[in-house]
Amino acid sequence: MSDTPRNQPAADQPKLNPGDQAEPGAPGAGENICPECKGSGQIGVTSCPNCGGTGKIIEGIGGA
């Protein structure tokens, strides 16, 4: 059993933001501009909660 709390990623796993649909580098996924902050990383004077202030999200690409 792990000592990592359920809601926190393990140290070797990438941190996902609420807007991310997949881990970075996952097959069939890629970076896109955050639709909430339009890529600025900010909403008003605070960091965008959707992308974690990066201005980018990871989402599925292609497909039918």
What does this structure look like?
- With 64 residues, this protein is an all-beta fold.
- The chain has a domain of 31 residues.
- 0% of the residues lie in helices and 22% in strands.
- The chain has no helices and 4 strands.
- It has a two-stranded antiparallel sheet with strand order 1-4. A two-stranded antiparallel ribbon has the order 2-3.
- A hairpin with a 2-residue loop joins β2 and β3.
Straight-line distance between termini: 39 Å
Structural class by secondary-structure content: mainly beta
| Proportion of residues in extended strands | 15-25%
The unreliable regions are none
**SSE topology string:** EEEE
The helix content is: under 10%
Oligomer state of the chains in this structure: single chain
What would the principal axes of the Cα set say about the shape? flat
Number of helices: 0
For the largest sheet, list the strands in their spatial order.
1-4
Provide the residue-averaged pLDDT.
Answer: 83
Q: Largest sheet, if any?
A: 2 strands, antiparallel
Strand segment tally: 4
